[in-house]
Amino acid sequence: MKIFVSGATGFQGLNITELLLSQGNDVVTLSRSNEQNIQVISIQ
Fold first, then answer.
1. Angle between the 11-22 and 34-43 helix axes, to the nearest 10 degrees?
2. pTM (two decimals)
3. CB of 42 within 8 A of CB of 9?
4. Which distant-in-sequence residues (6+ apart) come within 8 Å of 33 by Cβ?
5. CA-to-CA distance for 33 and 21, rounded, in angstroms?
6. How confident is the model at residue 40, as a pLDDT?
7. Which of 2, 5, 33, 37 has the highest count of CB atoms within 10 angstroms of its CB?
8. What pairing do the DSSP bridges indicate for beta strands 26-30 and 2-6?
């Protein structure tokens, strides 16, 4: 499933993103900072 997560670099968003990725979902994230987005992408 493809899922969009807004605020994925915050505490809750990061944990939700990790969970969704571990379940095999395709996750698209949005944040205000490109540096923080790199952190989310590296989880994959």
1. 30
2. 0.69
3. no
4. 9
5. 21
6. 58
7. 5
8. parallel
Query: What are the structure tokens assigned to 37, written together?
Result: 């987005």
Contact 5, 28 (CB under 8 A): yes
Question: What is the residue type of 5?
Answer: V
Domain ranges of the chain: 2-43
Phi, psi of 37 (to 5 degrees): -65, -35
Instruction: Render pLDDT for 6-35 as a digit per residue (tens, 0 to 9).
Output: 887 788 988 998 899 999 998 888 877 666
User: In three state form, how does the secondary structure of the chain look?
Assistant: CEEEEECCCCHHHHHHHHHHHHCCCEEEEECCCHHHHHHHHHHC
